[in-house]
Amino acid sequence: MYEEEYVLDAIVHILNGWLGFRYAEFFLRRKCEDRRKALFLWIGIYVAGQILYGKFTEYYPLYDRFTHIIPYLILLSFLQHFFFERNLPRQAFVLVSFVAGWEILRFAVSPLAHAVFGIWSPFWGWILENLAAKDVMPIDELTETMVLVNRAAVFVLLGVCRGVQLGVFYLYLRLIGKHFISMDDELKGQESWFLLIPCITVLCIDLTMRLMAYSVDNSALMIIYDRVPETLVLLPVVSILMLGIVVSSVILFHGLVQSKDEERKRLLLENRVVDVHRQIQDLQDIYGDMRGLRHDLRAHIANLTAYIQNRSLEEDKELESYLEGMESTVSRMDFADRTGNPMLDVLLHQIRQQAKRKNISLSVDFHYPESASFDVYDVSIILNNALQNAIEACERMTGERGIKLRSYQKGSLFFLEIENDFDGQLVWEENAELPTTMKQEKQVHGIGLDNIRRCARKYLGDAEIRVMDQGQGKVFQLTVMLYRKPSVPPRSET
């Protein structure tokens, strides 16, 4: 084995170690906060382990045995345990999918190397014969020079083949990492077997092919290529298909998890909508009772006031003061916001009281359109979710905090706009249209904006999010658009 081959192997080990670290980061949480330090340590240990294993196999060949894969698995398991937090289902998938992908790709690149060197060897012989025939230089000097040239050419050709292997391997790992479930999603035991079985299958096929190929000697594969040239195409195709099976299983699993999450969110949304409808109905009943009570109390106060005015002022000062207190109490039963809809008045009254308790200012300029074509329940769901989110965002801040709610119309479009101060922290998942929740229990929280968008799209509208600078802080703005069907006047009968 020439020195160049040792150098090439070292380069491949370094790149493979880097791929292994990056691949593990897709699925596992690092223990070490210093990523660069962890990366260099990982690569150093990985390369040292591979070199020691290579030296060992020079004296005790294991390529023709089933056990040759065990040292590789042990090395990667040790690295995962040392550098990443414990998560057995994910660690098992990372380990088996990484090893299976790298090993099966050897059978994709081996035919390529055989074909390339099959072309290079005759070409090299032709060059050597022509140079010797032309007597360019003494034969000893020519032989020595051409040996160096040949070694350099072989190094380049081997580098190209290993580069192809690394490139395909990187694409394979990237596709799995891109389509795997989120780091926050738990991978259960039964689910992990759904992902592990394709990887184990690929690994078993690789081991079977290896045992068959090296059953005679190390040149068995070359003999197969020469006697059955079709294998030069079939082996790479089979290897790529095996990798495709693993990637497809990951994509399928991701789709199943997404469908499950969507179903869970749909059920939560439906339950919350039912709860909001029930609460609004209760509030509407309370509002009606309060209106009647307020009317009766004011009438009673008016009668008592008229009675008192006909009597001596000095005699009834104490009673008049008591009546003024009653009038003040009744006035507090009036709602500060007159939206044009009693249910929304009650809802905003509750939100205003909640904001007041938390020292959050609330400015409202909201008017429910007359003869609106959309259901007031949906508008209440939008307002309740949006204003609750705004209050929660303000709670994470100190100092002066405020919320602004306003509505306006443009033609047949009705807009609701909610602005609130916030700390500037938004969490966006890849390919997500809306930010996700910052709460720990993501299974339960984080569907408020989805609920708002769902109600808006029910009326051919949508929700838009903007983040704006305001002084030294940030302002979160949510705009919801609803399409208001124009009212059609009744047709007159002739």
Care to describe what's here?
- The protein is an alpha+beta fold.
- The chain has helices at residues 3-27, 35-59, 70-83, 88-134, 139-179, 189-213, 220-227, 231-309, 317-332, 342-357, 376-395, 448-458; strands at 361-365, 402-410, 413-422, 462-470, 473-483.
- A five-stranded mixed beta sheet has the order 1-2-3-5-4.
- A hairpin with a 2-residue loop joins strand 2 (402-410) and strand 3.
- It is elongated and about 140 Å long.
- The termini are far apart.
What's the tally of helices?
A: 12
| Form type | elongated
- How many structural domains? 2
Low-confidence stretches: 440-446, 488-494
Strands of the widest sheet, in order across it, are 1-2-3-5-4
Question: Fraction of residues in helices?
Answer: 55-70%
**Rg over CA atoms:** 37 Å
Largest sheet: 5 strands, mixed
Estimated structural class: alpha+beta
Features:
single chain; about 500 residues; alpha+beta; Heat Shock Protein 90; 12 helices
List the helices and strands and how they pair.
Blueprint: H1 3-27, H2 35-59, H3 70-83, H4 88-134, H5 139-179, H6 189-213, H7 220-227, H8 231-309, H9 317-332, H10 342-357, E1 361-365, H11 376-395, E2 402-410, E3 413-422, H12 448-458, E4 462-470, E5 473-483
Parallel strand pairs: 1-2
Antiparallel strand pairs: 2-3, 3-5, 4-5
Helix pairs in contact: 1-2, 1-4, 1-5, 2-3, 3-4, 4-5, 4-6, 4-8, 5-8, 6-8, 8-9, 8-10, 10-11, 11-12
